[in-house]
C-alpha cells in the first residue's frame, strides 16, 4: 500500500464528540521523489481511520472528505469509550504530540517524473487514513510503501480484486525498486543496472545509519516513524540484494557465451574505467546454414562487381555490421576464404558459431554419415587423414600346456589402411536476379541448393552397393563387395525371418549387436510403420519414415539408398567398424565466366576431351557456385556390413 505523509492542520476540535475538522494536505515530492495529486483521489466514505497504519488498531472513521488542489479537507470522528488505546490516541492528538496524517492508497495511474527517481500518482484509490507520529519537518520523514496490503485491507470490508502476486514461500511481498537514473537515460546493459542498484543500496544504508545514529545520540529507541522508514529501507535493500544476485548470475552467463574479439580489437586500449567485463549481446541467430549461403552470396556479388564493390561494403549493406558475414569478410576483403590451413577462414573451422561449421551442422541431419553419433545412434570410428590404421582381422589362440611340454605358436592377422584426403564437389547454378535479392527466401534457396547437392553425392556414394573405389578420387561404398541375402517375403513373418538371417550373418562375423545400425530407404521405413497386426496394433512400433528403432536397433533413413528393379536394400552396419575422416569445413568458389555441361554425370574432361553442349554462365546471366568438402571412409573389416536385397517389406504380394 502506498502512503504519503502530511501535517495535520486542525481547524476545529470537538472534545465531546471527538470530531476533528482539518486539512490533510498532500506533500510535495516525498522521500522517494514521488508526488500524489489530491485531485486524482477516488474513495468511498466512510474511510477507516487507523493508528500508525496498524490494521488491527482502528480508532475511527473519516466521514467527510473534500478534494481541492491544495489538499483534501477531512472530517474525522474518533470513537469514544471503546478502549483505553483509542482514548490514549485521542489524548495524544489533542495534545499535539501526534501531528501527522498518512494517506494509505493504491496507485492507479502513474507517470515518471523527468530527471528523477520518482513518479507522479495522477490517479489513486484512497483506502485508509492514519494518525502517525512525525516531526514538524514533515517532508523529512516521508515514507513510501508502494503496495497495498491485500491480506488486511484496512477494515474496508472488501478485498481488492487485483492485488499483488503471491509472495511465495517467504510469505513476504517486497516493493520493486525504481532504478531510473536522475539524468533520465534508460539503462540497457547489465552493468548499468548493477551500478544503479549498488548506488541505491549505499544511499539506503547511509540513511539507515543516520536514523539509528540519531536515536542513539538522543539516548532513545527509534519512534514509530523512524521504525517504519528504517524497515522500508531495509526491505528495499533485501530486494536489491536478491536482484543483484540475479543480475550477476546473468552477467556470468553472458561472459561465458561471449566470443573472443578479432586481433585488431584485442590490440585496442582497454577502458580501465569499466567496473565489469563487457557483455556480448547477440542478435537473432539465422536458421542453420543460412549464414554460409549469405557468405557465398556476398562473395559472388563482390566478384560480379569486378572490384567496384568490396565484400565488406556488400555485407554491411545486406546484413549490417553486426552480422556474422560482415565479421568474416572484414578479416580479409581480398583473399578468398577457404577452410584450408593458412587461410583466414581456417580459424573458423570447428567453431560452432562460424558459418562454415554451421553449414556442416546443417548438412549432418541430411546425410547418412551425419546421422551417426546423433540421437542415440552409435558413432563411426573417426580417424585423421594420412595416418596408418592397423587393424586386426584374425585373432590368435591360446593353449593349455602340460609340464615340460613345448608351447604351441599362434599367428595374428593384421591389415594396414590409410585414408587419403578425397574431395566431394558440387556445382550449383543460380541466376544473377536471384543472387541480387536480399530476401531471406533467396538466402534459403541458395543454402538448400548447395546443401542438397552435397548431401545427395555423399549419401549415394556412402551406401550404394554398385559404387566402387576410384583411386585418388572417391572411396567405395560401405556396401560395395558385400554378398547380399535375398529377402524371403513381404509380410511380418517373412520380415522377421529376414532380420534373423541378417543378424546371424552379422553376429557370426563377430560384430557386437549393440553397435548395429539399420540403414534403409524412407519408403521401406514408412511401409514398416504402416503394418498392423490382426488386432489393429502396429506390427513394428518405434519406426517411422524418419527413422526411429527397428528390432531394438536405431534406424537411419536415406532417399538415396536407391531400390533396384526387384526391390530395395536394407543394410545392418557395425558403426564402430567404419573408419571416417572429415576435414570439417567447406570450401566455396564462384564463377560467372565458366561454361558448364548441365548434367549430373558430365562426360567432358581435360584428359580425353569430347564434343558436348555447354552453357555459358555469362551469356545466361547466371552464377556458378562450387562447394567442396574433404572427407573419406573405409570399412575396417569386410564383414562390418550385412546386406539384404530385393526388399519389398509391407507391400502386397502382387506388387512385389
UniProtKB/TrEMBL annotation:
Organism placement in taxonomy: Bacteria, Pseudomonadati, Pseudomonadota, Alphaproteobacteria, Hyphomicrobiales
Domain Prohead serine protease: 46-145
InterPro entries with a match to the protein in the record: Peptidase_S78_dom (IPR054613), Phage_capsid (IPR024455), Phage_capsid-like_C (IPR054612)
Residues annotated as domain Phage capsid-like C-terminal: 389-644
Highest taxon, organism lineage: Bacteria
Residue ranges, annotated region (Disordered): 154-183
Keyword tags: Coiled coil, Hydrolase, Protease, Viral release from host cell
Listed GO MF terms: peptidase activity
Coiled coil: 208-253
GO biological process: proteolysis
Protein location: Virion
Protein name per UniProt: Peptidase U35 phage prohead HK97
One Pfam match: Phage_capsid
